[in-house]
Amino acid sequence: MSGKPPAIFLMGPTAAGKTDLAIELTKVLPCELISVDSALVYRGMDIGTAKPSKDILAAHPHRLIDIIDPAESYSAAHFCTDALAAMAEITARGKIPLLVGGTMLYYKALLEGLADMPAADPAVRAELEAQASALGLAELHRQLAEVDPVSAARIHPNDPQRLIRALEVYRVSGESMTAHRQRQLAESSGADAGAGGHLPYTVASLAIAPTDRHILHQRIALRFSQMLEQGFVDEVRELRSRSDLHAGLPSIRAVGYRQVWDYLDGKLDENEMRERGIIATRQLAKRQFTWLRGWSDVHWLDSLACDNLSRTLKYLGSVSILS
């Protein structure tokens, strides 16, 4: 084992059972939890994000949940700053940081560092959002393919936040996001992301998901229906009542929220909203799988197995995280 302190990443697609396993681990290991989820950071967005209940959070606190208002933006850079501070605090007390969630970009940024991207430009961002509204995301994806085909191949055509950001980087700096990242990789001279890269920790990476993708799709559909029964529409209605929130904000573009927002705007009927919300969640899970397939040194667990805790402990022992 290196001289770096240990940390555990528990990744996986949405509805795979990450939180349940993470809580089980805290009962047998000196771990403290850090959420890695771009939606759980928002206060007042509880049902549609499948945020752990108040009772669970009281018994098993998660850092980086409920830290900003939905009117604010939260980036991978913000996450890295907050996560590193939390990890240092946990390590200083002799505990192990256990990072759990499905926002894969945040994990990657934490491991490899962030390329020196230009800051957001409100005027350029507003112009791109207007184009997206008037011409559609397919047109933005076509524009991105012309100037940055590598990013266009990586970014899903229906992912407005990342499409707009990639085009914004090009328009502000005159260089593609790919060019920025290639320069960063050259400067890092091949740091090993799987072993921790720029991160000053020895990282054990775990991923949990059902081996049968059909089972995951069933879980996603069931959870979305349960969210609606729990008052998801009323939650979004409360957000819509605020004058400072609108459909273009990252918080409202979160999976599920934008579909319910469109329903309340009269753009979708109830069945269409439900169907599109489930489809969007499946697409999110597919993107999460795509990230994980390219992840080095990840140990997979089957959500349906009954012995994931013991399997996890065995793996952590084999990579000297527990020594």
TrEMBL record:
Keyword annotations from UniProtKB, A to Z: ATP-binding, Magnesium, Nucleotide-binding, Transferase, tRNA processing
GO molecular-function terms, A-Z: ATP binding; tRNA dimethylallyltransferase activity
Site location (Interaction with substrate tRNA): 103, 125
Region of interest (Interaction with substrate tRNA), residue spans: 37-40, 161-165
Cofactor: Mg(2+)
One GO term of the biological process aspect: tRNA modification
Catalyses which reaction(s): adenosine(37) in tRNA + dimethylallyl diphosphate = N(6)-dimethylallyladenosine(37) in tRNA + diphosphate
E.C. number(s) listed in UniProt: 2.5.1.75
Pfam family, any one: IPPT
Chain sites annotated for binding substrate: 14-19
Top-rank lineage group of the source organism: Bacteria
Keyword Nucleotide-binding found: yes
Residues that hold ATP according to the record: 12-19
Annotated PANTHER family: TRNA DIMETHYLALLYLTRANSFERASE
Family: Belongs to the IPP transferase family.
Role noted for this protein: Catalyzes the transfer of a dimethylallyl group onto the adenine at position 37 in tRNAs that read codons beginning with uridine, leading to the formation of N6-(dimethylallyl)adenosine (i(6)A).
UniProt subunit comment: Monomer.
Alphabetical list of HAMAP family matching this protein: IPP_trans
Protein name as annotated: tRNA dimethylallyltransferase
